[in-house]
Amino acid sequence: MSDLVNVTMTVNGTEVSHSIAPRITLADFLRQTLELTGTHTGCEMGVCGACLVILDGRVVHSCLTFAVQASGAAIETVEGLSDRAVIADIQEAFHQRNALQCGFCTPGMLMTAHALLSQSGVPSREDIRDALSGNYCRCTGYEAIVDAIEKVARDRYAGANASAPEEVGA
Amino acid sequence: MKARAFNYVKASTVVEALKAFEDAQDDASYIAGGQSLVPTLALRLQAPQLLIDIAHIPVLRGVDLQGDWLRIGALTRHHEVLTDPLIRQHAPLYSEAAPHVAHPAIRNKGTLGGSISHADPASEFPAMTLALGAELEIASRDGVRRVPADDFFLDLFQTAIEPGELLVAIHVPVVRPGHRWAFHELARRRGDFALVGCGILAEFVDDVVKQVRIAFFSVGSTPLRARQAEEALIGKKLDQAVIAAAQAVVGDDLDPPEDEHTPPAMKRHLARVLLGRLLGEIARQGA
Amino acid sequence: MSVLTPLDRPNSYIGRSVPRPNAKRLLAGRGRYVTDITLPRMLHVAYVRSPYAHARIVSIDATTAREMPGVRLVATGEDLAKLCAPWIGTMDHFKGMKSPPQLPLPIDKVVWSGQAVVAVVADTRALAEDAAEAVYIEFDELPAVVDIDAARAPDAPVISPELGSNLCFHGKIDTGGVEDVFAGAAHVVEEEFHFGRHTAVTMEPRAIIADYDASEGQLTVHHATQTPYQFQDIYARHYGLPESRVRVIAPDIGGSFGMKLHMYHEDMAVVGLSMMLGRPVKYVADRIESFVSDIHARDHRVRARMAADAEGNILAMDVEDVTGIGAFSAYPRTSVVEGNQVYRLMGAPYTFRNYRADLQVVFQNKVQMSQYRAVGHPVACTVTERLVDMIADKTAQDVFDIRSRNLIPDDAYPCTSPTGYQFEALSHHACLAKLKAMMDYDRLRAEQAELRTKGIHRGIGIATFVEITNPGPAFYGVGGARISSQDGAIIKITPSGDVHCSISVTELGQGTETIIGQIVAEHLGVDSNRIKVMTGDTDTTPHGGATYACRGAGIGGETALQAAKKLKANVLAVAAAILQDEPEKLDIHSGWIVDVATAQQRIELSEIARIAYFRSDTLPPGTQAQLSVAHHYAPQGYPFAFTNGVQACHLELDVETGLVKILKLWVVEDCGRVINPLLVDEQIRGGVVQGLGAAFFEECVYGDSGQLTNGSLADYLVPMAVEMPDIEIGHVETPTLDTQLGAKGVGEAGTAAASAAALNAMNDAMKPFGRTVAQVPMTPARILKALGHI
Hints:
Mean pLDDT of chain A: 94
CATH class of the largest domain in chain A: Alpha Beta
Largest sheet of chain C: 7 strands, mixed
Strand content of chain A: 5-15%
Low-confidence stretches of chain C: none
Strand order of the largest sheet of chain C: 3-5-1-12-9-10-11
CATH superfamily of the largest domain in chain C: Aldehyde oxidase/xanthine dehydrogenase, molybdopterin binding domain
Oligomer: heterotrimer
Shape of chain C: globular
Strand content of chain C: 15-25%
Low-confidence stretches of chain A: 165-170
């Protein structure tokens, strides 16, 4: 057996502190200890992308990180992004385009989409597919996901351009 | 699929990390990004008593130009390799290989030092370390030493790093005018380990190859220099016949293992195709 | 005045692209999958698995494991056999088929590598895995039966000696006259095809929590399955529990595709473990376990030939299929269904009448093989469509022309295939014409010719198909399997006039709840947002077939339609009593009782409900308002509702490396009435990509000793976003007249023909080199070999 260690991190804006075994992955910590079950585990070896979360501003596999390694870090999960409404347009586009079926890969897809769409410019379909290269989906065949992300990219770009003069004038 | 129990310690200096390893009587692993290590722990293929987290040691970070050498800290993440302007300018083969290393989320966490010290023969960065002629700075309780890439990769997942030693930084001789380079890999899916991959760094004087380093990956138990192919190019202009001559011998440079789905004959064939395409690209760079 | 289309009527939902209301929960990270569920005092199980494909169990020593921290129980095959009756995966209508009895965990021998042998239950999964490592099993290795030919050799080791051989089933079909037709045919083409084993790789692995409460003898199973009623029946019968005391709940399911409707040993064991412990026990297969325990599919070697006359009119087919299914036939649906569909679907779109086929289903020491999306279809379709292309080559005809010449004419229905399948109405020619226009075929051919001169090699392949949907009892029931082909629905009106529908078809993300809501809303006459659809709980929904073989929309939808009509009649009867009018003169629109003649609103549905529930005293004497109905529907017309369609694949082959870029896929499909175009198209796209996975990437590779050599998600290649193309879809609608709804199934159509279209496209690309390929997946190694590079 191993010694328990104290981990303290900020999860979805709230500081949490627990004493846990070092072998617990961040994915299991989120899902089991914090009951944030929106993050899924599909392979536990960093291949499927269902467990993606944001760690200090970058999307990572929570199954390839032990929770102790994330002590002191800021984590955001699909629950946090939903509550902050920062991906509301992505979620709406996924819903309208039916870019999910069973929904198990979806939180990871949303993480990747959020990261991609946080960059400037409108990504091409090839860029979107490339960004999704580590996200496995068995149901959709990917096209609807690409469509949904492309739509949000265009809408955000149009919105940013439309609002730009106002910002300048303000 | 849960790792065996282990203890965990976070090191804040190299000395602290080395001492923790020694104190654990070598039953320990360093962890930085963990992108290769964690799956092996989850699968219980490895089960050290102690994990030593080196991800917060400042001296392992940073990218600096030091005269004719670029020092890249071992903790430099793959996504930083992809975007860092100094690496792009001075060690461009790393930058060109980076988009092919796994997927975005892996690149956000994985480190260059981790990839090189893991020494997967199918990985891009170890092979590019060979192609660039880099030197590896390794710390031990006795001090620090530098090992040339040509002497670093010893066997399958085995390097010149002794148990307990720590890769601190990668030193790359900067590319100069007259250098040309090219990278490509053949993979079945984006981000997969390649069927065959290759990076070439060549120095030209008046369109004649003065020096060249050709490094293949996924064709043996380590990344491999294609020395006979290199010989075939030295002192020559890169025309069709010279490229063909290099292609003719490159198969003998490689040592692909038996594998039903990528048999050695296939790897050698693909290596010839890849070499031809890369040398063609390098030839065109001079046009 | 403009003409109103059916979609302009109030509450017209059938035919509309309605997004799925239940998807919002999943998008917010609020799905509730079995993997997410934690029950009070819940324990976790890990299994010790066999490293050998075939071995005798000599001894099991769990002394150390039992003493390890957090361990609550270590159970063996003998322990569970005391509780659980064995099962046998046969059905009567497969004459002569045989399979050995199975138990949750084996007692004396293991028959595949990865078979669970000992269960370790502990406080956490990690602790269970720790203890599992400390269980010592001594095995005596036996020769493994791996190859399908070696398995049938006279001196082959027999996996189940009591069965006498490794042959599970031998079937023959012969319409007669085949030899004579081949002897006299102007053209005969022949090929040997290989179809790799592949597997479902659902995003959520198999997951189950069994919770046995001894105080009232109640078993509750939270089970990631598409068929909860089937498992209620199985758990009750094999554990000797009253069916009324077995509840199976299927919450959100992370993908299924046919994989999660089979009986798995670990899952059956979990029920027994919970009964032994009196506590909830959870099992989630990790991905490594999934590869060695989820069913595999395909694994066929087909030798086939086709005869045609001088003009290219197809005259006959002659087929021999051998398929390896693992060490026993799966339960309760058997492992013969796929082979049976392979040899019955051959040539199904075409007019020829002479057919002969031989099917051998073979035991081997591998993971069990059984039904996965598009059961048998891709094999039959690929063989047929490749041979058709070879006839086209022989007779110098275009691939569209050869099909136009040979497909069953659109006005020739009803008709029957040489193997006895009855076709109500199909639309091959309409689909073919639509596809040709959609893909701009002539331009693609011109472009192909031009690019070939530049050393760029593109291929165009097409494949026509039929799909079996809406199966009646002929599928399972007649064979003695307790698997329903009917469905049931309960629809009730709440006191505020909302509508609640619980139905036996299940939701797997394909959109069942959405389309049922659409159908109920339209046929009852209410806004769809006032309808709540519940599925997946044997305690709260009627018994039914649930989801398999593309039956949800066709059979479940018809059930909902008829139930809604029945309820509407009840509502109108009450309304007529209240309004003192005749029911025939009333209708329901948008939750209002209206005059049929004038559409004038008379009384709101919520008011009817209020009166019925709270002021029944004000109803006319003798009026008993029936605002809930239960209704069942079983298909009675054709044994199956066949659908049809055609796919095209456009790809570019790097002839030096064997790597392929799939440029585009087109599908024209006829699933009868389209209830929700958005959902139908995504079913097709998802299905196509699974077919492309089989065509290019997916294969369970076994070594000579029966070891799966690529059993991880890093080694087994699934289709990913970068490699998959955009897919353009068109529809022809030929509703079935067997139902009022007119809908047929669509979930497997994409998978049925995608690999066939891809194989034909690949052969088209290789044509200038005079090389061919007849094996899927078409790996770079196989392509390079075919091209003569290695």
